[in-house]
Description:
Strand content: 15-25%
Strand order of the largest sheet: 3-2-1-4-5-6-12
Largest sheet: 7 strands, parallel
Number of helices: 12
Helix content: 25-40%
CATH topology of the largest domain: Rossmann fold
Shape: globular
Distance between the termini: 43 Å
Number of domains: 2
CATH superfamily of the largest domain: NAD(P)-binding Rossmann-like Domain
Amino acid sequence: MTSGSIKTVAVTGATGFVGRAVVGELVRAGYSVRALARDRIKAAGLSRLPGVTVVEGDIHDGRSPEELVDGANACIHLIGILREQRNGVTFHRMHVAATRLIVDACRGGGVSRYLHMSALGVGDNGICDYQTTKWEAEQYVRRSGLDWTIFRPGLIHGQNSEFVKMASLWAKGEAQPWFFMPYFTRGVEEKGVPLGGLTRVIPTVQPVAVEDVATAFVRALSRAETVGETYNLVGSEKITWPEMLNEIRDHVPSANEYIQPWGIPAEAAAAQASVAQFVGLGSFLPFDRGMALMGGQDSTAELSKVRAHLGLEPAAFRRSFASYAGSL
Length: 328
C-alpha cells in the first residue's frame, strides 16, 4: 500500500495519554480516524475532533477489532498496561492477546499497514513479565505478513502523564512518601570487593515528549522506509533520575524546595513487591516487581535511525518540561 492511499487510520488505546496525542496529530495531518474507546463519555473530546469516529467497545469483546478496522487503510495499536490488576487485566491479556486480536482483524479486513507500540528494553531476555509479554507481542507482529513498524518508547512525559503528575505531588509533599522523591537504583558487583560487594548505580533516562511520540507514529505512516523496522524512541537529552526529579521540583508551582530525590535499591523493592503480591497485598504498594526492576535500569537509546527515517529530532527533557511545568 502506498502512503497516498492511506486516508483512514484505526487507533486502539485512543483515549489514553499517548492515544489522545496520536489521534490529535493524525487529525492535524489530515487523516480520518476510527478510535476504539471502552467509554464513550471518556472519548467525548475525541469525537468532537473533525474526522474522528469513535467505535465504542473493548478489544476483547468479540466484535470491536473487526468493526474498528472496517473502512480503515492503516492501524495504530497502542494498548498496553504498566501493571496487572485484580480484575483479570493481565500483561498476557493486554499485550499478547490484544495484539493477536487486532493483527488478525487487520489481516481479515485487508488492512496491511500496521504500527505497533512496544517498549524500550524489550527483548528475548526480559527481566519481568511486562517485558516478556511485550516481546511475545512483537514476535506475533513480525510474523503477521502485514507492513508493520514497531516503536519502542522509553519514559514518555507530558502534562497529562501519570508519572509527571505523581512526581509533581512528590515535589509538593502531597503524596507518599511525603518527605522525599523516590527512584530506584541497581546493584552492580564491584571487582575486588570481598563477599560479593555491590556498587549502587543511579540509572540514566532520556524522557521523550508525548508530542514527539505522536509525530513519530504519524510520520511513519507515509514513509516506506519504516516498513519492517523497529525504532527505539527516546528524547535527545540524557539525564539521571535525581537530575530529572530535581528539575521537576524546581519548576512545579508550590513545590517544597527541601524535598530531595532518594534512591531505593531496586532488588529489595522487587522482593518486597513479590512478597506483597504473594500474600494478596500487592495493590497496596505503588509499584510491582517489574516496575522496580525496570526502574533500576538505564532507559537510553541511540537516535540515528529515528533522525534518518523520520526526520525527527526529539526534544530535550528540560526544554520540553519547562513548556508545561507552570500548569502542574
